[in-house]
Design a protein that fits this description.
- Helix 4 crosses helix 5.
- The two termini are 32 Å apart.
- This protein is of the alpha/beta class.
- A hairpin with a 4-residue loop joins strand 12 and strand 13.
- The strands form three sheets. It has a six-stranded mixed beta sheet, with helices on both faces. Strands 1, 2, 3, 5 and 6 form a five-stranded antiparallel beta sheet that branches.
- The chain has a single domain, classed as P-loop containing nucleotide triphosphate hydrolases (Rossmann fold, 3-Layer(aba) Sandwich), CATH 3.40.50.
- The chain contains nine helices and 14 strands.
Length: 261
Amino acid sequence: MSAVLETRDLAVGYGGVPVVRHVDLRVRSGQLVAIVGPNGGGKSTLLKTVAGLLPPLDGEVRVGGRDLAALSLRARAREVAVLLTGRVRTEYATCREVVEAGRYPHTGRLGVLGNEDLRAVDAALALVGIEGLAERDFMQLSDGQRQRVLLARAICQETPALLLDEPTSHLDIRHQIELLRVLRDVAATRGTGVLMVLHELPLAREGADWLVCVRDGGVLCQGTPDEVFCSGRIEELFDLAPGMYDPATGAVHVRGRGWHA
């Protein structure tokens, strides 16, 4: 599988101060890659830099074999779609109109949607199962429903790479699973490479093809879920005492009692 996105010796941070250094990662066509690690470790900063929303402090991000920094904003939007955390506010916009915004990188100067664009909007709405919400006011939805609308907007953009920061936030367990199934479907049927920040370890283990573990200003390790979860790396990644995390069951043991992460 070819790489749709990769970083080379990337350093990310704010005000010239690095948060994460020496990041070399690759997202291949049809692959789901999850960034995991403790809070404050720079996962979201890394994702925003890869998305082109923050300038790299060193190294480079390449999409489709080209340096992301050398592309125009419209050209970037044709290569990378982004779904970030945070509450999006709109003024009297329906869900369909929010999703339609994902098509504007493909339109002309006037931003008029053609038949192909409208078909892409309908397909994205159907894929995430929100056709019935299409004409609803976006601001009148629950947080979980809004998250699905924003995912549809990103899918509708039809880019080779899809970047998501904590996409399962605001979702209950059923909708978390459904969202990951949608992402797997998009990856499998469209060849989209997906890079996402995940906090839920069970979802990362079951939903990702490859894990990038970030802590202490760098990448601790990378590998398949089986390689990472069965090697003692999770304890090291989250600074857990030996035996506190059970890789076989995903249980965390606190004072002799087990609960599932």
